[in-house]
Design brief:
alpha/beta, FAD/NAD(P)-binding domain, seven-stranded mixed sheet, five-stranded parallel sheet, 27% helix, binds flavin-adenine dinucleotide
């Protein structure tokens, strides 16, 4: 079995920063495992501005931030297209890569697997199962990585910052959302975001409006929503379910109690820059602990 000082699962901002700081502190035998084909994590497909303030003291787009992080880490052993399947023993992992399935172990293992938005199933939305219903992250992969436009006039659901990230992604692709609906009383985003949506982009934002069901025969044709006890339909050709983040921590089911976690896998959604700062601090503790 392959043995290392530290294995980090996930090459997003948190995983890469942990690895880079460990290397700076003299811990050389560090391996980062990443299931995607490239390192960089979520910022790779967040084509809009707003990344890096806490870590680099300047703002840049997600892809630029991701590229910067990945190139700063270019002398680290990052194994892409490598998915961690489970923990097999206290400090051992089973991984899948192009070489097949193998086991690896390390003195310390760090989980930096990030978060994901809640799926339609988790949000208990009724109606037909149709293509064209997706989270913001999936939309961004279509738009920024594959240059595709999955719909023309979707409804955006959500009340968080990421809801407006979905709007910016739509704008970038020439998609005109029919509206932003949130079941919550208030938005969990700066007050001027809905004003910008309405006056700059012509997209109305409505709170206290709950998505009940998605309708259509072969693709989305309308959504049914409830507001003040009244149910109505509105025509649209897609639905973007934004936010309601859950940590990507399925691996915890098999993880030992001494697992180290960093970044958004901890369960709270922070900015990418904040994840970098926190991960660097964590690396210092790991390096001391290994001495
Ligand atoms: C739509 C959207 C917009 C955002 N906008 C902003 C913004 O404007 N500014 C900002 O600062 N932040 C923004 N964020 C937040 C920012 O992206 C996160 O703070 C940051 O990516 C968290 O870094 P992380 O390393 O914890 O996780 P991630 O970036 O999610 O990286 C986790 C990595 O782990 C990998 N992984 C997961 N499971 C496994 C496994 N089993 N095996 C191997 N690899 C695995 C994943 O493929 C991924 O590459 C946005 C997030 C989203 C979703």
């Amino acid at each position: 079995m392959e043995n290392h000082d530290v294995i980090i699962i996930g090459a997003g901002p948190a995983g890469l920063s942990t690895a880079m700081r460990l290397r700076e502190l003299g811990v050389k035998d560090v391996v980062v495992l990443e299931r995607e084909t490239k390192a960089g994590g979520v910022p790779r497909h967040c084509g809009h501005f707003g990344f890096g303030w806490e870590s680099h003291k300047r703002l840049m787009s997600g892809p630029k931030f991701a590229k910067r992080m990945a190139s700063a880490a270019n002398d680290i052993d990052i194994r892409t297209s490598t998915t961690v399947l489970e923990f097999t023993m206290r400090n051992s992992l089973r991984v899948h890569s192009s070489k097949g399935i193998s086991d690896m172990s390390a003195k310390r293992i760090v989980l930096a697997t990030g978060t994901r938005e809640s799926s339609r199933a988790a949000q208990l939305i009724g109606g037909n199962r149709l293509p064209g219903v997706m989270n913001t992250g999936t939309l961004q992969q279509y738009v920024y990585l594959k240059n595709q436009k999955p719909f023309s006039n979707p409804m955006i659901i959500g009340n968080e910052w990421v809801t407006f990230s979905a709007l910016l992604t739509c704008r970038h692709a020439g998609i005109k959302p029919v509206g932003i609906f949130a079941e919550e009383q208030k938005l969990d985003a700066p007050w001027f975001f809905p004003l910008g949506a309405k006056f700059a982009y012509g997209v109305p934002v409505q709170t206290k409006t709950k998505l009940i069901a998605i309708h259509g025969s072969t693709r989305v044709e309308a959504v049914q929503f409830e507001r003040n006890g009244q149910r109505n339909m509105i025509a649209c050709d897609g639905v973007i379910l934004s936010g309601k983040f859950k940590p990507e921590n399925a691996l915890l089911a098999t993880a030992p109690s001494n697992i180290i976690i960093t970044g958004n896998a901890l369960g709270t959604v922070h900015t990418a820059g904040a994840c970098v700062v926190n991960a660097r601090a964590l690396a210092e503790t790991i390096a001391k602990d290994l001495q």
